[in-house]
Recover the amino acids of this structure.
């Protein structure tokens, strides 16, 4: 059977669960169970189906924020550091409760606890949408008064006497506005925390429930099906994000006359909240069956048909003299595990708190366990950074829309990661890899993952020239090609309505900064395109289209994603062999606890700090911040070279840490193997010396032996 990540079951409970079908002749139910026919919910296969759907929906709602993080930043004026902290708060409640749930879960009704956790996840998903409904409608043009259409004359080059009054005055930045902003951000953080708390019982209780009541030979297959189906959840989250971000954020309250934005406009904000509503509804529907499953069900009696065929083939191979696999799957021994994992359900909370630190220190003293966990911490730190900020990186570096960035990630990265996990498990199973070979496979995977990341430094291009902010080497910084071209204009300092001069590839933060005095809307069948004319800072006076300049290296986005996907595939190959090293590196009675400690350390050392570290590094590359009520809000322009070098540099830093840890694991295993060989030689040297003394004529033969 596969390793139990959830709570350990007492022998009497397992015996009690199987008495109804196995203790009577012919496998018939006992008299107690004949009073009523078993319901359809007394079926482990149905539980497997329901749990696969629930975990898929739960991972979808947990991963959806990552697909829309850049949109949430723009909507609520958050920095990358704050958005990274928001994403990390999903792990706070989860980490605080996961150890206690894993050890005291056998005392409760596991299916109902899973259902309650799923209901909490659904409510947290609904809470994530509340900021949209309590906030004012999104205004992408902050200079136009609220009673005028957005992108009006306020952003044009007009004399001070005829310029309209600014929409945002010092009076509007009141304590009420700041309190409302803090309330919105606080609701987002609270919802993320509740998402983590609700997810605590779902995976460990579900895995242990399947492992307890499935046939011993079917349990690994069922868990494999569960993991394979649920791994598609994050990929579907990015697919859902791709669909929702094509819709305007205020689709439920569109302004009169519509909007003049397109999805490629840097001010575009998609309907980020709509995906949470859909995912929360799916989780709520998936939670319903769990309130009908029994606390215990009869253990599955029969092995699956094709599993019996495989077992028969294996038996015939062994009977012909071929050796069976040298390693048993973890947990496959008929002997019951003892130790803390066995007695923990009988401990009180106070007793468990007293015992846990001692067992934790004993587990961490295993060098193999500690190094493999540190290697996984480094590996998952790269995964956390990529999962949260890769969409934003693609948007900025290659001028793609948020929808297309999510589509690329969901359709390329996650399928290739799943392929890597399947390939790693297949190699371990088919080649019967022991600890030494598992460490070699992990080391090679980490090495190739590092090598595939090196070309990413060179797949990209510099930021185009932005008048007054960034200038290309060899050009003069300034508002435009003509000094003083915007002097007669009264340009608002906090406006953001970029236009691009296609002839020089120079971007201006507003039409006013380009000296444009008029605006023209060109209607087509499916969309409208805005142009600005009579621009004094542009050669020929324009027209210039609204929107940012396209990146000169947009065509490199697919090669970049291919390299990222290949690196993810190679990295995921190490997942199963690393897990086997953890199970082989600790004592038998500590395996359950070791797996729990592994997941706890991954959350504390990788999933929680990594988003904040990546977000802080990204913020240092910003060259122009939006200001909101005197405080720094969202970043509008980045130095693309710095962004790429620091983001990819962090990735390679963590990948190097993974490589070093796996190299140390291999060195320790070789040293242990050498010491074991030395001990075996010493133990066998005594009889050999006696033979040498009594029969010198046999010396060459004995020496050769």
């Amino acid at each position: 059977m596969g390793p139990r990540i959830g709570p350990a079951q007492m022998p009497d409970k397992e015996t009690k669960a199987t008495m109804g079908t196995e203790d009577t002749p012919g496998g018939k139910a006992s008299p107690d169970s004949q009073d009523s026919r078993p319901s359809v919910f007394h079926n482990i296969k149905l539980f497997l189906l329901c749990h696969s759907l629930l975990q898929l929906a739960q991972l979808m709602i947990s991963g959806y924020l990552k697909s829309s993080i850049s949109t949430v930043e723009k909507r609520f004026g958050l920095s990358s550091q704050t958005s990274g902290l928001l994403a990390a708060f999903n792990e706070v409640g989860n980490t605080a409760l996961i150890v206690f749930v894993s050890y005291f879960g056998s005392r409760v009704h596991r299916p109902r606890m899973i259902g309650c956790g799923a209901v909490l996840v659904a409510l947290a998903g609904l809470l994530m949408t509340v900021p949209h409904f309590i906030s004012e409608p999104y205004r992408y043009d902050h200079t136009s008064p609220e009673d005028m259409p957005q992108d009006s004359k306020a952003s044009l080059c007009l004399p001070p006497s005829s310029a309209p009054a600014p929409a945002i005055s010092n009076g509007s930045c009141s304590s009420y506005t700041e309190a409302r902003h803090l309330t919105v951000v606080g609701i987002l953080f609270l919802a993320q925390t509740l998402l983590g708390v609700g997810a605590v019982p779902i995976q460990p209780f579900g895995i242990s429930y399947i492992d307890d009541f499935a046939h011993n030979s079917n349990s690994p297959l069922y868990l494999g099906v569960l993991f394979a189906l649920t791994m598609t959840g994050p990929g579907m989250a990015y697919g859902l994000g791709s669909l929702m971000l094509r819709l305007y954020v205020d689709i439920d309250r569109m302004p009169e006359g519509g909007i003049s934005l397109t999805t490629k406009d840097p001010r575009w904000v998609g309907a980020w909240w709509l995906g949470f509503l859909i995912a929360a509804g799916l989780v709520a529907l998936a939670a319903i069956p769990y309130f009908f499953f029994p606390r215990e069900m009869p253990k599955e009696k029969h092995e699956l048909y094709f599993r019996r065929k495989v077992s028969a083939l294996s038996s015939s191979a062994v009977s012909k003299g071929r050796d069976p696999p040298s390693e048993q799957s973890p947990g496959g021994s008929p002997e019951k595990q003892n130790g803390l994992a066995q007695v923990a359900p009988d401990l009180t909370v106070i007793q468990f708190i007293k015992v846990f630190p001692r067992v934790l220190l004993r587990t961490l003293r295993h060098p193999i366990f500690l190094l493999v966990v540190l290697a996984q911490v480094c590996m998952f730190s790269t995964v956390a950074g990529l999962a949260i900020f890769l969409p934003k990186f693609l948007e900025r570096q290659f001028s793609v829309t948020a929808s297309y960035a999510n589509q690329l990630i969901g359709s390329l990265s996650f399928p290739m990661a799943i392929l890597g996990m399947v390939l790693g498990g297949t190699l371990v199973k088919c080649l019967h890899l022991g600890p030494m070979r598992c460490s070699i496979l992990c080391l090679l995977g980490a090495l190739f993952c590092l090598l595939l990341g090196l070309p990413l430094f060179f797949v990209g291009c510099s930021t185009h020239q932005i008048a007054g902010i960034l200038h290309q080497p060899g050009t003069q910084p300034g508002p435009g090609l003509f000094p003083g071209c915007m002097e007669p204009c009264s340009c608002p300092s906090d406006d953001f309505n970029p236009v691009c001069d296609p002839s020089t590839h120079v971007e201006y933060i507003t039409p006013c900064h380009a000296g444009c005095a008029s605006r023209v809307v060109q209607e087509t069948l499916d969309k409208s395109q805005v142009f600005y004319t009579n621009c004094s800072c542009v050669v020929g006076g324009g027209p210039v289209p609204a929107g940012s300049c396209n990146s000169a290296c947009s065509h490199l986005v697919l090669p970049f994603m291919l390299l990222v996907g290949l690196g993810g595939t190679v990295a995921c190959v190490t997942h199963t062999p690393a897990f086997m090293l953890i199970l082989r590196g600790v004592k038998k009675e500590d395996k359950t606890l070791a797996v729990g400690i592994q997941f706890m350390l991954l959350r504390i050392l990788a999933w929680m700090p990594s988003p904040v570290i990546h977000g802080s590094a990204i913020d240092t590359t910003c060259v122009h911040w939006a200001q909101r009520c005197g405080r720094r809000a969202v970043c509008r322009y980045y130095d693309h070279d710095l962004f790429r070098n620091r983001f990819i540099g962090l990735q390679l830093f963590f990948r190097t840490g993974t490589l070093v840890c796996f190299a140390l694991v291999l060195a320790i295993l070789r040293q242990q193997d050498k010491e074991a060989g030395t001990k075996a030689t010493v133990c066998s040297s005594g009889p050999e010396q006696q033979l040498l003394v009594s029969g010198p004529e046999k010396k060459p033969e004995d020496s050769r032996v």
In short: The longest helix spans residues 640-694. The mean pLDDT is 78. The radius of gyration is 31 Å. DSSP finds 23 helices and eight strands in the chain.
